[in-house]
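Predict the structure of Bardet-Biedl syndrome 10 protein homolog.
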Amino acid sequence: MVVECVWKHSTVTGDGSKTFILLLASLLRKIHTTASREPHVSHSYNSLEAAEAATARHLADKLLAFALKELDDLIAMEVAPHGRCVSWEDFTAEMHSPANHYVQKLLASFFHMRLGYVHCAFISELTCELLNHWKCIDNLPYFALQFLKDNFPAIHTPVSGFPITSSRLIEGQVIHRDFATPYPQTDHQPIKAVVFTGYLQPRLLNTGDVLEVGCGGTEERSIVDFSAWTERSLQCLIANLQSLGVSVLLSVVKQSAAVLALATQAEMCFVDCVSEDELSLFAQLSGATPISDCWRIEPEHIAELTFCRPILLGPHRYVHVAFHNSEERVKVKPYSLIICGSGEGQTDQYACAFQDAIRMLFTTWEPIPATGTTAAKRTVQSDKRTSSYTHVLTDSSTCTSSNLNPLHKCVLQPGCIMPAGGTFEFLLHHALLKLSHSCSASNDTNIGVPVSRLLASALLSVPKQIYSHSPGQFLQTRTRVMSFITNCSHPFDLVCNQEHNASPIQSEGPLEDGILNLHCCRKSDMPSKVFTQDMGLESVSCKYELLLAVLQCVTSLLRVDTILRTHTALHTQSLADTSWESTEDEAEN
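Done. Here is the predicted structure for Bardet-Biedl syndrome 10 protein homolog.
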């Protein structure tokens, strides 16, 4: 169950598996300790163990309810203002520019944990270059990241036997199949292509069909006539494609030898057995619609290509296509990612790291919606804290996507990042303790009173593990973060001030001596260096998703009533396929 929860979380955010386990273990310990102290043994429970289990489940449910109701607001108000919001212009800025620095720093921190330190800079620059090519012209940034995330298997090509520094981007799409017919050299443009989802030659029998032939010759003559008819119809189809100027044919299924022979005679390129993912990407980039009925080819079924030629990548030869520029069809200039590695396993590791990095960026940029009631409550709380809090969080100022429901708004501004090394955990720990103290002082019975302290205590397990080699550095870093919070003279808005082109979550200048200086208040209020070493950057949204996933896993674990232990390995066959005699024999064994 734990492995499945970690896997589901990592497929969403692309990272956080180790932190997931650390937080999970810490929360289970804290819940067990708290439950064992509660005097809840009564007539409802027949043992102390049952009472502790019930209390633990109750605490886990309260933790999850608190996180779903309050945690996003708390992070938005108390944690995110101490970070920096990276704009989409930073993602697509020129390499080595100050605007692009933070994006490369975020990616380098991610790749450092996944692949090591040596090639972090190269892989980060390659990822930024990929994002720059795939940026959408008219859409919001997370649409481009969503497209890359969904189509990454078709966009990248692994090549073993070369160093990682040989990885590069090439224009167009690489289809991971070779030509089924000889490739004719042609210079005419544009090249027209059609995607077929079925067989071009009508088939007498499908898979699994049985043909029964009688003693007479009627069935045999019918088969001969059918074969002759299919050959004539196929010739007419090829002639029709030639009249339309089509010279490239792509197919999901494997075509017959007769189809390939006629295509060769007509000097047409045929690529069959193409994966559905690659054909889906081809259709999206070309604007052409795949066709199932080959006799009803319309202009919308024909794709225009700049070129279609073979490409040799390592020991494999593939099909390389580039798309004709058209403002009506393609709003990006597509590029394929070639990922190289010395061995097959290492190449797959690099490819997984690239894919997870895109998932991480998408989670960082994806807006987190909240109900209007929650947003209004946060605004009231903000006004109570200080009169200088003038940037009120309104639906018009925070929701950047017109596709969001009018009753929803963005809690965390997309692109919020902050220094790694326990910064998020220290800030949220402080915010949770402050919340529990304020609720206790007002004699509030809110569910966040006991569980906020429990969650705050569990959060410190992450920085403790980071600085396990030096406990003194843990205390020093925590003290610096706390002094940074107390030196701020007023709260800060998360929403970008569009009128002044400035973000309240800002950073003055790039890294200084490898150390990130973040400013959320006046320069005089800010210590010169927040951290004693450069720990990189991390996403606030990914941290928020991690906390929710861990709390959901804790709740699922503590809802288990009984574990059935077996002394032998369970068989995979169903009970219907197993006789009672064999079951009794296995029990005796």
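Residues 198 and 541 are 44 Å apart (CA to CA).
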